[in-house]
Design goal:
alpha/beta; single chain; ten-stranded mixed beta sheet; three-stranded antiparallel beta sheet; DNA synthesis; 28 helices
């Protein structure tokens, strides 16, 4: 805790009497620097091309605490250390990085009167450094990129822009987004002020409508995505449900997804970053519909709903509310867009309505506040507060929250912003976004199922405690350095929202001792918050939200990101010196002990999980405990409504919203998505996004070649002619006795093997032999049989591309890192084999359609160059196996036959991970983090945190 006392501060060179914070030590000891209490070690961060030995990144002798994982140290070294590699200016120690950042915070706090004495400033400095190097929390990435460097001191990751119904404003939107993207951050905007395509211009013509202007912004974001050095452009586009162009907006991305499938089937390069994807529009933004309570009630009642002119507010037309809602769900079922934002709920919890409504959000939907504003984020590692006796360290959690809020508010004082409008709003309202990570790991470690009353009670209590403490500290800061500039104008609505939070805390129902203790402290914090807020006001218009915590979650060695459950029970751990090993998540043994299992039982269950990646039928594990180990994916995936209920348990205690995607199985129906959207509204969520597994990979049984069918329709009715079409049987073309071949030695997840691929002298691949394990073993026999089956298929004319489509992304053990620079990670041996065969034997265009690129091609994409120019030419004659191979030519089937494309059943088990993009930095498949994606290999994210 802290006290407010009289002290001195320096402002503009003048000494003045002012109040200041009296800091108390939490984790540190007077007279001892926090770094001196840590054992430090030197490591080498070397990223090499295993095939030719070339080095992609090298920095030797970097310094980190011994308890930091290899992955966390690698990510910080490559992402956050500043200075040119190989020069004396390059940072080489975590100490230097933390000193650079914390030094600016401490100096700014002293200069602006935050601390009562120099001793208090030193305590702040030491406590902040201790918390960061011990991975108790982390600031968002822009802080590490920019603070203390010669670059602009941008600290915010999230921005909201505004667009009016004027061409000048629309062009400003394009420019402002570009500046934000260039800095590695994301932005959101609501286009509902732009008049619809059904309204007239003052000149008498018809307006273009907002969807047409989205094309230009999408193209700009796509260009910057290719050239950005930090991360891909991330953006959100919002449209109100009563906008006359809402149906066009809803269907926009679903139509483009149809185009992607058609072009991909035709052989175009439609992979992320592919040369032909630029012909598809609207792919660089998340889309969300702003739904009102009026609309949702009309959906419930089956009523008509009015679409209103933008300038006059008059109803232009009425639509069936349920029909429009169905179209939203249908589009989301097809391509995961649009999400929904519940407008009245958002604005009912708005602290500053006198300034303006909340109309939009950042790209991941967790930051919802005023137009032309920004938010800097920080996230607490919850698992660090689980003590050895399995209790939650409430008092230290409270003290750390105070410390973080103080630091975050100081950052707004020195921060730079991409536009003057954003600078003015942010400095006037000082929006903060404290949140947390590792909730899923904390619940599992304490023996609580994610989808359970106990799990939700803990999550709700922790979130309430965090936000109550944050606003209490904000009120204390207001008493020292003053409330935010817009507070007096919004004092009553702000205090009303504080009372709503406190009332929600009163309504929280506890289940066991852990959440009861947390809830009791939360109640005290809210009481102090209301008392101090009435006296001083508040320093910050917003305090909390739940962000994806992608890169910073990896920096803190978190098992789970944001509010998410565990992704899977088994993961890969990087090893010093290279390579990786498969390990069972360390929270599992702790959970088993908490549930009362003996050590020999724990060992047997962990061994079973290591071999099977799930707990079903694990020896000695009681079925009633299965739910504790449910994950986002796998044998026992958490039900969609389980995700919604967890969001609802925490939303009343957050100033902002939650970045999270509700995962649905591939078998989910449009009705299921409607139900999720409806329940999200009823349960008081502010925003919601859904993702149906494989909705962007597979497609239902369909008929292609529509143009051909249309062209062959008879002009006039005629008696149909019955034709018998004979489909020729393929014949086998055996390999000659002597044939060219290539042998590849490979390692996947530590398992070694050999692959020999033989080709016809002039006709492409015709035979594959695989060797793993000892001769006579079961695995060796299975691989021999598989090799024979594949080889016979190739000789009968099955295209290699077909095999690659079936086996790439197939997931089973062994899996993990390989020694092949072109295929850094493999989901299985089959995944690796067919990626390698595709790289060696398929032309670039065919590989690009499958998302398979060499290391050099990925590097070219990162530089914004055409990777096709780097691909080695493949003799098209050598690819004759794309048609049946036989001794003499066989007529091809008639071209007017429909082409059937089926969903790949192997991919149906991959879920959202199978659909995840490849990291354009290192080529590793990314994994979900909130509503974004993060690369565990290098820390790159597709979002804005």
């Amino acid at each position: 805790m802290t006290e407010t006392v009289n002290g001195t501060s320096t402002r503009g060179g003048k000494r003045a009497r002012a109040k200041g914070l009296k800091m108390k030590r939490i984790f540190t000891t007077a007279g001892t620097h926090p770094y001196d209490q840590i054992t430090w070690e030197r490591r080498d961060v070397v990223m090499t091309n295993w095939r030719d030995g070339s080095i992609n990144f090298e920095q030797r002798g970097v310094e980190f605490p011994e308890f930091w994982s290899v992955n966390a140290a690698n990510i910080v070294t490559t992402k956050y250390f500043r200075g040119a590699v190989g020069t004396p200016q390059r940072e080489w120690s975590l100490k230097a990085l933390v000193d650079r950042v914390v030094g600016v915070y401490t100096r700014t706090g002293i200069e602006n009167g935050y601390f009562a004495t120099e001793e208090d400033a030193e305590i702040f400095d030491h406590e902040l450094k201790h918390a960061l190097v011990h991975q108790l929390f982390s600031f968002n990435s822009p802080v590490w990129f920019n603070v203390g460097t010669q670059s602009p001191q941008q600290v915010s990751a999230c921005f909201i822009l505004a667009v009016d119904d004027q061409m000048e404003s629309i062009l400003d939107w394009y420019k402002e987004e570009g500046v934000i993207f260039k800095g590695g951050s994301g932005s959101g905007v609501n286009l509902s002020r732009i008049r619809s395509s059904k309204e007239l211009l003052s000149s008498g013509g018809t307006a273009s409508g907002p969807v047409s202007f989205m094309r230009g912004a999408d193209a700009s974001a796509g260009t910057i995505k290719s050239g950005g050095a930090t991360r891909r452009a991330a953006k959100m586009v919002v449209l109100d449900v009563d906008h006359p162009d809402i149906e066009e907006f809803i269907e926009t991305k679903a139509r483009e997804e149809d185009k992607i499938r058609a072009l991909r089937d035709a052989g175009f390069d439609m992979d992320l970053g592919g040369k032909d994807i630029v012909s598809v529009q609207y792919q660089n933004a998340n889309n969300s519909v702003r739904v009102s309570d009026e609309f949702m009630r009309a959906v419930e009642n089956g009523d008509q709903f009015g679409l209103r002119a933008r300038l006059t507010g008059d109803i232009l037309e009425k639509v069936d509310a349920r029909g429009l809602f169905r179209k939203m769900a249908q589009a989301a079922w097809e391509c995961a867009d649009p999400g929904v934002q519940y407008d009245d709920t958002i604005n009912d919890w708005h602290t500053c309505p006198e300034t303006g409504r909340i109309t939009a959000s950042n790209p991941c939907s967790e930051y919802v506040h005023l137009d032309n504003s920004s938010c800097n984020l920080a996230s607490i590692n919850l698992l660090k507060f689980l003590t050895d006796d399995d209790t939650f360290d409430i008092q230290n959690f409270v003290k750390l929250t105070e410390l973080i809020i103080t630091a975050m508010d100081i950052s707004i004082t020195f921060a730079d912003f991409p536009t003057e409008k954003i600078a003015e709003t942010t400095r006037a309202y000082r929006q903060l976004g404290i949140g947390y990570a590792n909730l899923g790991a904390l619940l599992m470690a304490t023996g609580h199922a994610y989808d359970s009353d106990g799990g939700r009670a803990i999550a709700g209590a922790i979130t309430s405690l965090m936000t109550g403490t944050s606003y209490r500290r904000s009120a204390e800061l207001a008493g020292i350095v003053g409330p935010y500039d817009g507070y007096q104008r919004n004092a009553e609505p702000h205090k009303r929202v504080m009372r709503k939070h406190a009332a929600a805390n009163d309504d929280l129902r506890t289940v066991d001792a852990m959440d009861r203790a947390i809830h009791a402290e939360a109640s005290k914090q809210w009481a102090d918050c209301l008392r101090l807020g009435d006296k001083h006001g508040y320093r910050n218009a917003q305090a909390s939200l739940l962000a994806p915590t992608g890169t910073i979650g990896l920096m803190m060695d978190c098992d789970t990101t944001g509010i998410e459950p565990d992704l899977a029970l088994v993961k890969f751990k990087k090893l010093v010196g290279g390579g990786s090993m498969q390990i069972v998540n360390q929270t599992i043994p702790r959970a088993l002990r908490q549930l009362g299992y003996q050590e020999e039982q724990v060992e047997a269950i962990v061994d079973y999980i290591a071999r099977n990646s799930h707990v079903v039928d694990a020896p000695g594990l009681r079925p009633e405990h299965y739910e504790v180990f449910d994950c986002a994916m796998g044998e026992r995936a958490i039900a969609p409504m389980g995700h919604v209920r967890m969001m609802a348990a925490t939303q009343p205690f957050l100033s902002g919203a939650i970045s999270k995607t509700v995962n649905l199985p591939e078998s989910a129906s449009v009705d299921d998505i409607e139900q999720v959207y409806l329940e999200g509204w009823k349960l008081g969520l502010k925003a919601l996004a859904v993702y149906r597994d494989n909705c962007k990979v597979g497609q239902p049984l369909s008929v292609a070649g529509k143009k051909t069918e249309k062209a062959e329709e008879p002009v006039a009715a005629a008696e149909p002619e019955v034709k018998v079409i004979e489909v020729p049987r393929p014949t086998r073309r055996r390999m000659p006795n002597q044939r060219p071949s290539t042998t590849t030695r490979f390692t996947v997840g530590g398992a070694k093997g050999y692959m020999t691929a033989s080709s016809y002298p002039d006709d492409g691949l015709g035979e594959v032999f695989l060797k793993m394990s000892k001769q006579g073993s079961t695995l060796a026999g299975v691989m021999d049989a598989f090799s024979v089956a594949i080889s016979i298929g190739l000789q009968y004319g099955v295209p290699l591309e077909t095999y690659a489509q079936k086996f790439v992304n197939m997931r089973f053990e062994p899996a993990g890192m390989t020694d092949d620079p072109d295929v850094r990670m493999a989901q299985s041996v089959m995944d690796y084999i067919f990626r390698r065969l595709a790289l060696d034997h398929l032309p670039y265009e065919d590989r690009a359609a499958l998302g398979i690129f060499s290391a050099a091609e990925r590097s070219a994409q990162q530089r914004g160059e055409d990777p096709a120019a780097l691909a080695e030419p493949v003799d098209t004659a050598a690819l004759a196996q794309s048609a049946p191979i036989e001794e003499k030519p066989t007529p091809r089937p008639p071209t007017n036959l429909p082409t059937l494309t089926r969903v790949d059943p192997l991919e149906s088990h991959q879920g959202r991970t199978a659909d995840a993009p490849l990291c354009m930095t290192c080529g590793t498949k990314m994994r979900p983090a909130g509503s974004c994606y993060v690369c565990e290999g290098c820390g790159s994210t597709s979002g804005c945190s």
